[in-house]
Write a structure and sequence with these properties.
- The protein is an alpha/beta fold.
- The protein has 2 domains: 4-128 and 164-181, Flavodoxin domain (Rossmann fold); 130-162, no CATH class.
- Helix content is 38%, strand content 23%.
- The chain has 6 helices and 8 strands.
- The protein has helices at 15-29, 46-51, 68-78, 107-115, 137-149, 165-181, and strands spanning 4-10, 33-38, 55-62, 65-66, 86-92, 122-127, 129-131, 159-161.
- It starts with a strand and ends with a helix.
């Protein structure tokens, strides 16, 4: 078995990174070393992706779309003749609602899977973080409008982390099980 599990993430405000870090810590507690890679620093090559037995991607959504570094990785992943199993994690505020944490229930995750014609071994959505104080005025107002339309909090002093630690830990258990079951490359 390879020494490190590749754990890629694409983040704008740090939530996807924090989730990836928690996954990495929980995997380490189970004896699995994860190598975290910020996709903003660069994409892996097709050769690198082809050589690993499992790919984990934690991708943030901003204004209804997954961040470009994540979609670039998935476009590259689709070109692989024999892609490894994929764990796909979408980080978005829609996942704060019951039933919106699955590939079937989360519109962003469902669209991403369809767009790239993926068949992830595991697909999940984890709640994002809403912290109005971090956003510039225009972003804050747009997000408040979206929250108003989706019955979310609109108070400009709101700071809520919707990522359930238990959901992340449950997802990590699934990743660990998958990692232990993949044949080495």
């Amino acid at each position: 078995m390879p020494s490190d599990l590749p754990l890629f993430y694409a983040t704008r405000d740090g939530q996807a990174r924090r989730i990836a870090e928690r996954i990495g810590v929980r995997l380490a507690e189970q004896g699995i070393a994860a190598r975290l890679s910020d996709l903003a620093a660069g994409l892996p090559t097709a050769a690198v992706l082809s050589a690993v037995p499992l790919v984990v991607l934690v991708a943030a959504v901003r204004y209804g779309r997954h961040l470009r570094p994540a979609t670039r990785l998935l476009a590259l992943f689709r070109t692989l003749p024999a892609p490894p199993p994929l764990v796909l994690v979408s980080v978005n505020l829609t996942a704060r609602k019951p039933g919106k944490d699955t590939a079937q229930g989360n519109p962003y995750l469902r669209k991403l899977i369809a767009r790239y014609r993926l068949a992830p071994a595991v697909a999940a959505a984890i709640g994002g973080r809403l912290d109005y104080a971090l956003y510039p005025w225009w972003d804050r107002e747009i997000i408040r409008l979206i929250m108003r339309l989706t019955s979310g909090p609109t108070d400009p002093t709101t700071a809520i982390d919707y990522a359930s630690p238990q959901a992340i830990d449950d997802l990590t258990a699934r990743i660990a099980e998958l990692w232990r079951g993949v044949p080495p490359k």
